[in-house]
Write a structure and sequence with these properties.
138 residues; mainly alpha; 3 helices; elongated
Length: 138
């Protein structure tokens, strides 16, 4: 990479810059790209009525498609909002049910423990009655 005076000398040699002197600058020549660009911008200004009608029809179709898409987008957004609300309601309900389920499981565990205790007491009393009857019969 050239720095300082060397860079300026190289640019002067390649005619990328002109030195600040009293010499007149070279005239600016228009390139073919310039004429291509101006031709491309001038042609649409010379449209015929049929061309204008075609463009208007195309614009009307595009506008109708845009309005239809906008309508569908709003419907989908409304449906999405409804589904999100349903989801939050279901999650809240699920959390409530989890609490109820824990209470029911706790009650079930207590009842099972009571049942096991009563069954053991019943077995003891049956065996006691059996031995008492056996002893009395002998």
């Amino acid at each position: 990479m050239l720095v300082g005076r060397e860079a300026v000398n190289q640019l002067l040699a390649t005619d990328r810059i002109t030195p600040l002197t009293s010499e007149p600058r070279r005239p600016f020549l228009l390139s073919s790209a310039y004429f291509t660009c101006t031709a491309a911008t001038m042609d649409p200004l010379e449209l015929t009525d049929s061309d204008l009608q075609k463009l208007e029809e195309k614009a009307a179709k595009a506008q109708a498609a845009f309005e239809n898409e906008e309508k569908l987008r709003k419907e989908v957004e409304a449906l999405n909002a409804k589904l999100l609300q349903e989801k939050t309601d279901l999650l809240a309900s699920l959390e409530g049910e989890k609490g109820s389920l824990a209470e029911f499981q706790e009650k079930s565990n207590k009842l099972q423990a009571q049942k096991a205790d009563l069954e053991s007491q019943l077995h003891v009393s049956i065996l006691t009655n059996f031995f008492v009857c056996y002893l009395l019969s002998n």
